[in-house]
């Protein structure tokens, strides 16, 4: 079984082109114009063991908001497409990742209902050209469009770079657990996940 999806989304503010393969090896090629965001998406792909190819252009002269949010929208929609009716998947995923002094926990459910809880206190305004306020915005866009219940908790830490990196690594590992095929049944007593 090969579960993949591709999409180009173009607005007056951004053009996002993403290809996704869930049965991957963690390969990625990411070009968004925001170096730290490229690094985070590379980590996500590696730890999820998905293949991810992203080319994103946007009005970075305004700020990074539109490009990062729209990337989350497209990535979420591609997960939704690639998973189909979600038959056979584990559905739930959890990961706890330390990054030096930081500890992050991510728990998620491909429930068909989008919800985000994000507890990550950041002190800096920017990490490179990535606005720290965009972390929950990206996660919300991704969860909304993947129709995913997502709980992100940075339990403690001091360094904002470490906190955000731990979030993306833990998210990748939780996704890897949730999307794996475990049998051929739909993982819901309701008989549908939507």
Write the layout of secondary structure elements.
Blueprint: E1 4-10, E2 14-21, E3 28-31, H1 35-48, E4 51-58, H2 65-83, E5 92-99, E6 102-109, E7 115-119, E8 126-127, E9 130-131, H3 134-146, E10 149-156, H4 160-179
Parallel strand pairs: 3-4, 7-10
Antiparallel strand pairs: 1-2, 2-4, 5-6, 6-10, 8-9
Helix pairs in contact: 1-4, 2-3
- Strand tally is 10
CATH homologous superfamily designation: Imidazole glycerol phosphate dehydratase, domain 1
- The residue ranges in which pLDDT falls below 50 over 5 or more consecutive positions are none
Helicity range: 25-40%
CATH architecture: 2-Layer Sandwich
Give the count of structural domains: 1
Strand content: 25-35%
Mean pLDDT, to the nearest integer, reads 96
Strand order of the largest sheet: 1-2-4-3
Q: List the helices and strands in order.
A: EEEHEHEEEEEHEH
Q: Class, according to the CATH hierarchy?
A: Alpha Beta
Question: What is the rounded Rg?
Answer: 16 Å
CATH topological fold name: Ribosomal Protein S5, domain 2
Shape: globular
**Biggest sheet record:** 4 strands, mixed
* Terminal Cα span: 22 Å
Please state the structural category: alpha+beta
The count of helical stretches stands at: 4
Notes on the protein architecture:
The structure is a single chain. The protein has one domain (4-179): Imidazole glycerol phosphate dehydratase, domain 1 (Ribosomal Protein S5, domain 2, 2-Layer Sandwich), CATH 3.30.230. Helix content is 34%, strand content 31%. It is built from 4 helices and 10 strands, in the order βββαβαβββββαβα. It has a 4-stranded mixed β-sheet, with helices on one face. It has a 4-stranded mixed β-sheet with strand order 5-6-10-7, covered by helices on one side. A two-stranded antiparallel sheet has the order 8-9. The relative contact order is 0.21. The mean pLDDT is 96. Keywords: Amino-acid biosynthesis, Cytoplasm, Histidine biosynthesis, Lyase.
